[in-house]
Amino acid sequence: MSRPCQAVVRARLPQTAAPTTVTADKVACLQAAEQIEPYLSDAAHYPGGRAARVFLPTTEAEVARVLEHGETVLAVGAQSSLTGGATPRGGAVLSTARMNRILRWQESSVVVEAGVVLAELEVELAARGLYYPPAPTFDGATVGGMVSTNAAGAATFKYGATRNWVEALSVVLADGDILDLKRGQVKADSGGCFEIVGSDGRSRTLQLPTYRMPQVPKHSAGYWNEPGMDLIDLFIGSEGTLGVVTTVELRLVVPRPQWFVALVPVDDEGQAIALVEAIRKAVAAGSVDVTAVEYMDHRCLEFLKEDGADTKRGVGLPAKARALLLVQAELCPQASREDAMEQLSREPSLRGETSLGRLCDIFAAHGVFDDVVPALPGETARQRALFGLREDVPESVNRRVREFQRTCGPEISKAAADVIVPFSGFAQALRGYRSILTARQLDHAIWGHISDGNLHPNIIARSIQEMDSAREAILEMGQLAIGLGGSPMSEHGTGRSPIKHELLRCLYGAEGVEAMREVKRVLDPQGILAPGVMFPVVDTWQ
């Protein structure tokens, strides 16, 4: 067996004779109840959020200073977690909001602090003709949060998830040591071990779990694990349980492409699946360049019409449509609106000369070409309208959940699955999800990244009884995905959700979860980082 590769920490702040908590004169700190209150919940609206204080560090050194005092800490960014992962349960919150600088631009990458917001980064990227593909749908997320959950979005179909695009990161460990990781420099030995040498010279051996992950395009369930893996990948997707990410180097696409976007109404789920299967085959053959295909089912469509979203966005939807696809294709950076118009208007016999024309041929072969609502290169407002229609779907669901929460009680909350399967099992999975929800008579809407096999079945519960039934349905849908070779947590992580904790056990077994706990014990022996996130707190941690 080869010797474990060594990772040596860069520095550790000197120990100080300080009290057990860090005061505001050392690191900016909020302690008044009204100041802390905004940090007590996240997008999942999990109840019971509480914290003694909120730290607002501006530098990596200040993050280390907070951690070295041993208080339990939950690091948060935009608090956009859909799993309760950014809801504190005591101790302190460490917000990266003030660590929001773009540090340097490189030829095909950018180095940023963890608190940089994706929407703000996108403005800078567009101005420079650059592109960061795996940005999640919610552009208010931060880079640190994105790395923490191995976030993914629609473009994962072509480009993969966040992990594929992280070249380097710096992470502050639980004892205040700072670890700099560059992809390719520190890999596990043949026995699945890393050796980490601390600032005190002592070495810690980190043994990876032995479970194998499902072979799907995106996966955010537990610690990454594969033979000969890079140490950097252990921290990506670890949900802040192993360290606090402070800076990240993201690889970029140069130059930025142009896009053709098409809203495609379809008659039923079968037609949608057949069309996507044809697109996937064409992509595999290299004949079309499709970045993503999104799916919205008939209930999503009903919500859009009930709320007038189609009218607001200026998008006409055929009355016969029972589902929607949103197709995004990449064109060369020089492509213009006129180029695309010319290709779309060609005779069918001549369309096959270009990638865009071949995509139109697929639309025509499946009987949807005449109903396609296109947005061409340069039509940025039109493209925003089509993407906005997709984003109106979860907002429509959330609005209905809030209404039932007001009328039925605070026990009503958002209930949704985040499941992915290999596309070969997608049709079976979708039928199964629908059967599980229909059998329980639960109102539901299903949307997601169909080109990846990733769906988000959302349940609109109207009573406490339906909330209980919704939780059972989410567990059953996750187990179905596992049985088809998929993952029950594709994009959003595990967080504090008891259902997702159970699904993590279903995926890896009790032994796999315990192996993850052991990894955390090596890096965080006192259990101070994000306790309760990813797996429940145990009475005896050490």
Keywords:
single chain, 542 residues, alpha+beta, eight-stranded antiparallel sheet, 16 helices, 20 strands, globular
Q: Supply the number of helical segments.
A: 16
**Mean model confidence by pLDDT:** 91
Structural shape = globular
Strand content: 15-25%
Give the beta-strand count. Answer: 20
Name the helicity range.
25-40%
Main β-sheet description: 8 strands, antiparallel
Note the gap between the termini: 28 Å
Low-confidence stretches: 12-22
Over the alpha carbons, how many angstroms does the gyration radius reach? 24 Å
Structural class: alpha+beta
Word description of this protein:
- This protein is of the alpha+beta class.
- The chain contains 16 helices and 20 strands.
- The chain has helices spanning 33-36, 60-67, 118-127, 143-148, 156-159, 232-235, 269-285, 298-306, 309-313, 337-344, 348-351, 355-365, 380-408, 426-439, 464-483, 498-523, and strands at 5-8, 29-30, 53-55, 73-76, 92-95, 102-105, 109-113, 166-172, 178-182, 193-197, 203-207, 244-251, 258-266, 290-296, 323-331, 373-375, 415-416, 419-420, 444-449, 454-459.
- Strands 13, 14, 15, 16, 17, 18, 19 and 20 form an 8-stranded antiparallel beta sheet that branches. A 5-stranded antiparallel beta sheet has the order 6-7-12-8-9. A 4-stranded mixed beta sheet has the order 2-3-5-4, covered by helices on one side.
- β10 (193-197) and β11 (203-207) form a beta hairpin.
- α8 packs across α13 (380-408) and α15 (464-483) packs across α16.
- The radius of gyration is 24 Å and the shape is globular.
- The model is unreliable at 12-22 (pLDDT under 50).
